């Protein structure tokens, strides 16, 4: 019986250049998805935004499953193109966050309007820095 | 019974209406690339009928008005977004300049602090070496200079921003004057029942430019508008504009006044809002952090220095390395200087014995100690630089987000108010045919009249 071919090496276990290439590819793909989602937020295309977010989660899971960032051990630091891709992704993420924050503010205004005059205009419970009222402590 | 003359009048009204509609179409096509132009649509209505019992005869058509197509909600959204864009643009520009001052190699505080501690470390290896002592003084001088430079940059930047305030106020006054003038022209035309579309477009463009400078609220009323800042300061009421003025405030920077009332703190958006945020919040915040760092470092070094003994074995009580910063910390970075010029006065020894280096080691140990807000001097400086970079990155992202939204709004506006060449081409043919048909009717009536005239002769 012929011997089984050896298992293909896991990409991130191979040479650093292989890891960089894979990381770069994932980063670029993720950046494109974030950019597409940004357009979806601007044009109010919720379906496209949701699909884009799911895809981003999938890509992110792939990225976090890669070995830790080199430079902290014996591995070399990332090549410049990877660093550029990281910077681009970071910037796009910031733009996306700014847009989503604006959308959130609009939604909050609409929620307050719909809630009528009985509700206050304070930030909604559950938002960052706002504690939920513990049940049983009221009244 | 309708006469030939009445029919002729009807046909002539058709001719005039088609001609007016063709003029609107021509104007639309001509303005296809004019920024802010809103396409015009001819509004036609039937002429008042004549009742000749038992019949009712039409009297043709009349061109009531040429209506400019606008969406007031979109216009308002564009104005608001333009304000945000103006604010962020000014803020990013100011912060980027601050960042470049902090990241430039000249006056690098972090590097100077690091070299100062390196020189102290070298001195601890040979505390009696005068050249090493001179190196410490030079390095201390470089620390002081780098603080002075960084603080000087911030002061210069505030002065530049102050000039920006005056410039923006001048532009605002110019624009409010033009808007008030246009309000008058629009009111005259609309009171006379005529279309003021072109002037409305011009006013809308001017309001947009004003929005990029300051936060503006538009309050429409009969045939005119009132413009106020978001906090309610009147800028334009009908045909009257209220000029803003500038004057030096108690803190030595330009404040903005409206009818003798200081409104500086109420301006939160537009380019002016961005300039004020950078001048009165961001830059002073960084200056306070720099003062805290300078004072924290100088006090810590002085404390160790004054506890030691100089090269001659004399106690260094009262002999500071840096001139002590003020207790209020105000101006600590700008005025930081080295207090001694004689290298022998550096207190490297802890007990006065020749060759002792304990105090130099204690000073070197300050490098890793938490001196300011639980951080070492270098870490605190890195935090300042990081925070500036972070503010620039966030503001740039917000500006880009705002640009995307503004672009989307402008696209929506173009879809509503913009000129479509296809639509105008169809309209051109429609009105051309209407004109030709009316002309044919006139020709037909003319020949009928000829028949009548010939019958009589």
Plain-language structure description:
The complex is a heterodimer of chains A (139) and B (457). With 139 residues, chain A is mainly alpha-helical. Chain A contains 3 helices and no strands. In chain A, α1 runs antiparallel to α2 (46-64). In chain B, the strands form 4 sheets. Chain B has a 4-stranded antiparallel sheet with strand order 5-6-7-8. In chain B, strands 9-10-11 form a 3-stranded antiparallel sheet, covered by helices on one side. Chain B has a two-stranded antiparallel ribbon with strand order 1-4. Chain B is α+β, with helices and mostly antiparallel strands and 457 residues long. In chain B, α5 packs parallel to α6 and α6 runs antiparallel to α8 (377-417). Chain B has 9 helices and 11 strands. Chain B has 2 domains: 4-69 and 418-456, no CATH class; 77-404, no CATH class. In chain B, β2 (50-52) and β3 (55-57) form a beta hairpin. Helices cover 61% and strands 11% of the residues of chain B. The interface between A and B is medium-sized, with 12 and 12 residues.
Helix content of chain A: 55-70%
**Nearest-integer average pLDDT of chain A:** 76
Coarse shape of chain B: rod-shaped
Mean pLDDT of chain B: 91
Indicate the CATH topology of chain A.
Methane Monooxygenase Hydroxylase, Chain G, domain 1
| String of helices and strands of chain A | HHH
Can you list the strand order of the major beta sheet of chain B? 5-6-7-8
Specify the oligomeric state. Answer: heterodimer
In total, the number of strands of chain A is 0
Q: Residue ranges of chain B: pLDDT <50 for 5 or more in a row?
A: none
Q: Can you identify the CATH class of chain A?
A: Mainly Alpha
Structural class of chain B: alpha+beta
Helix content of chain B: 55-70%
Tell me the series of helices and strands of chain B, N- to C-terminal.
HEEEEHHHHEEEEEEEHHHH
User: How far from one another are the termini of chain A?
Assistant: 79 Å
